[in-house]
Structure formats: C-alpha cells, structure tokens
Amino acid sequence: MSSPPLGRRSHEGSANASDSDSEDEPTLPLNQFYPYIRCALCCGFLIDATTITECLHTFCKSCIVKHFFYSNKCPTCSIVVHQTQPLYNIRPDRQLQDIVYKMVPFLEELEREQMCSFYKERGLDVPKPVIVSPPCPAVIKRQKKDNVPQSVFTVPPELDVSLLLEFVGAEEGICNYKPLERRYLRVSGEATVRHVELFIRRKMELSPSCQVDVVCGDHLLDHYQSLKEVQNFVGEDALQDGLLVLHFGLVLPSQS
C-alpha cells in the first residue's frame, strides 16, 4: 500500500492545526463587557464618552452634563468633581468611544441616523464630521518651538480671585485638626467668606464647636462679604504678588 505524498500530508496537518487553533480561541458574550461600555446613568451604550478627570469614571456626555445641573459629585463614587464648576473637569474619551462602536454592531450608524433626523426635524444644518488634519511638516514644528510657549490650561474667567490662606494658630483647648495642605486657591469673586470657612473646615476636619475667624489686613471679615468686596475694600494692602491674603485662626465660641 502506497503512502500519500509528503506535501499533501503536511498540507492536511497544517489545515487541521489551524482549525484547532480557531476552535481554541475564547469567545466572550458582549454582556460581560457591559460594565465598561455602558453608561451608569442611562444604562445604554456610551455615546460621546466623557470621562471625569478626578476619578476617571465615564458616562455619556449628555447624561453627565444633565447630572451636573443639580449635583457636583460623580454619580458612581460620589467624589466632589469641582466645588462650583464640575464641567471644567470632564474630558472626551474618543478612544473608548471607538472601542464601543467596534464592539456594538450598527451603533455608530444608528446614532448618526438619529442625529441627522434630529437636525432635519428642526430645520437645522447637520454638523459635518470632524476631519483630523495630517501632521505638520517637521520644519513648521521647529518654527513653533522658537515661539514663546503658551499655557495649555486657560483659567476660566469666572475664577477671578487668587487666594493665599495663612494659618495663624489655634486657641488653647483646640486640638485634633489637620494642617491645611492647600493654601493657594483660585475662586470666583462672588464667593463669600463663608465659603472660605467651609473649605477650611472640611480640609482641616474641624469640629462644629470650633470657630474660624478670617482676617484680611486689620479687618475681621463677616461671613456674608464676597471676596471681590473684600479685595476692593482693603485695597493694595490685601494683596501679595497678586494674591488676596487671608489670615485665619481657630477659636472657641464665646460663653456669653
């Protein structure tokens, strides 16, 4: 009995090996990836994936923007995203959005159709997709390096007062408080002295019986005064290198 040619035998062996390799590849159902590709607010697949920079939790852009209308905390971990403007600390996550579109069939096409119908029903022009420009030549990059570097981060115009908080000490009998590690702040001029006191209380973990006195120059400040009013009232004496300097101390409430 003649044996089959060597070439044919090797071909059949490689075919069987490839079939066994494909059978060994693990296949996972899509629902196992739901915690990573679905929004915790609407429970749908992520659309315009947007990540909170403070905790890296991701939601649909429209969902997280609506959430921040009535809360400044992350819906998942409840961390404070920003005391006054939480929308400053969110960023688009385009890589995750690309992954979602590749994992969920027809999701991108369906979202595009719904967006087009939305604009057409209202008589508006459909936005064109963003076209990524090709990289600039190396010569232009060298020219840009010679220019004066500009800051990537732009301070929002609402945050128009820079603070320096100086701790002057605590009255005898006050203990068990943490040091204030964050002494430099940039806040809105509409914020009041009461907001500064609440910030100090939270960061130093003060007891409710402890009183915080805030002083600017020689003036003991009232809770209702805004920081802009304090800066205008005290004048240049309150500023140090462009910073509004506030001294604060911890005292016990009067017994009277």
UniProtKB/TrEMBL annotation:
One of its GO terms (cellular component) is PcG protein complex. Residues 1-26 are annotated as: Disordered. Keywords: Coiled coil, Isopeptide bond, Metal-binding, Nucleus, Phosphoprotein, Repressor, Transcription, Transcription regulation, Ubl conjugation, Zinc, Zinc-finger. It comes from Haplochromis burtoni. It is found in: Nucleus. InterPro entries: PcG_RING_finger, PCGF6_RAWUL, Znf_RING, Znf_RING/FYVE/PHD, Znf_RING_CS. Its main location: nucleus. This is Polycomb group RING finger protein 6. Component of a PRC1-like complex. Interacts with BMI1/PCGF4, RING1 and RNF2. Interacts with KDM5D. Interacts with CBX4, CBX6, CBX7 and CBX8.
